[in-house]
Write a structure and sequence with these properties.
Elements (H helix, E strand, L loop, with lengths): L3 E10 L2 E11 L4 E5 L6 H8 L7 E6 L2 E2 L13 E4 L11 H8 L9 H11 L1 H5 L10 H13 L5 E5 L7 H16 L3 E6 L2 H7 L2 E6 L2 E7 H5 L2 H7 L4
Parallel strand pairs: 3-8, 3-9, 6-7, 7-8
Antiparallel strand pairs: 1-2, 1-4, 4-5, 9-10
Helix pairs in contact: 2-5
Length: about 240
């Protein structure tokens, strides 16, 4: 049984049919990526899963729980954590305080010390800057903090929304290396990304979105060599 199952999902913005009956699955331990041009519906799909948008129809199941019509604040308690587009760190708070906010829903407060150590070990730049205001970090460091904050909730699955946006090529490589390392610990990841080349490089499987429809899906390695995908998203021919 899939960890996350989306079936015949339809989402509207007013009269605009933004997501048109898409279906896909994410299995435990996988990195699944949704790729597509700007406006294809990638972020809208994530927002529907995390409860920030209410679908018109369809099914969303996570670990056997029906997410349709569930209040957004209840969904992280099931083990689903979203790293939002644009990072959305708490600029005035320190790095440490941002990480504490990630652990806000947890009841096992005595285990937090171990998880701070885990995040700092995986993201050593954050340890160096733990007392620094998050708003003074570079874009790449803020992305690391957003990932670290999500990990502090001890999720079963991470939803990553455009983690490479606005970053230099060298930082993009670093962020994707972090995503791969996090996945190696057993973390399941659903990755939304415009940088199709990087996304396909680390994903197990991929779904291609175009104007609210899934137009192609399959093994990430196979899609990365597909002529249509190369022409549309990888700058190839």
């Amino acid at each position: 049984m899939a960890m996350l199952s989306v079936k015949d999902l339809n989402v509207y913005y007013g009269s605009i049919h933004a997501i048109k009956g898409i279906s896909f699955e994410v299995n435990e331990g996988e990195i699944i990526t949704l790729i597509g041009a700007n406006g294809a519906g990638k972020t809208t799909t994530l927002h529907a899963i995390s409860g920030l948008l209410k679908p018109k129809s369809g099914e969303i199941e996570f670990c056997g729980n029906n997410l349709i019509n569930m209040d957004a604040y209840k969904i992280p308690k099931l083990g689903l954590a979203q790293v939002p587009e644009g990072r959305r760190v708490f600029a005035e708070m320190s790095v440490l305080e941002n990480l504490e906010m990630g652990a806000f829903i947890r009841k096992d407060k005595e285990a937090l010390g171990k998880d701070f150590d885990m995040v700092f070990e995986r993201l050593p730049r954050l340890k160096e800057r733990r007392k620094q205001a998050a708003g003074t970090l570079s874009g790449g460091e803020q992305q690391m903090l957003a990932i670290g904050r999500a990990l502090m909730s001890k999720p079963k699955m991470l939803l990553l929304d455009e983690p490479s946006m606005g970053l230099s090529p060298i930082l993009v490589q670093e962020i994707f290396s972090i995503i791969r390392d996090v996945n190696k610990t057993g973390m399941t990841i659903l990755l939304v990304e415009q940088n199709a080349k990087m996304a396909l490089n680390i994903a197990n499987r991929a779904y291609v979105l175009e104007t609210g429809n899934i137009v192609m899906s399959g093994d990430a390695d196979e899609l990365s060599t597909n002529a249509e995908v190369r022409k549309a998203y990888l700058g190839g021919c």
